[in-house]
Specification:
The chain has two helices and two strands. The termini are far apart. With 71 residues, the protein is of the alpha+beta class. The longest helix has 13 residues.
């Protein structure tokens, strides 16, 4: 649920909100896309909150993957 800049897309947030609230899908989890590092997860969660998807609200859980570099 992110763009390459690590920001959540308002359209993706709207789609998840629609499915959860208006279509009655009880799914509690939202999966984010791969982030280049853990530091960007806060920006993603903040953008989701600005678009009406707040972590923990209505039992929402968010899974975000990040790269772990093998140096």
């Amino acid at each position: 649920m992110t763009t390459g800049t690590g920001r959540g897309s308002p359209f993706e947030c709207l789609a998840v909100k629609l499915v959860r609230e208006e279509m009655g899908a009880g799914q509690r989890h939202s999966h984010g896309t791969l982030l280049p590092d853990r530091g960007r997860r806060g920006a993603v969660l903040a953008e989701m909150a600005r678009n009406g998807l707040k972590l923990g609200e209505s039992d929402l859980q968010v899974y975000v993957m990040c790269e772990i570099l093998n140096r």
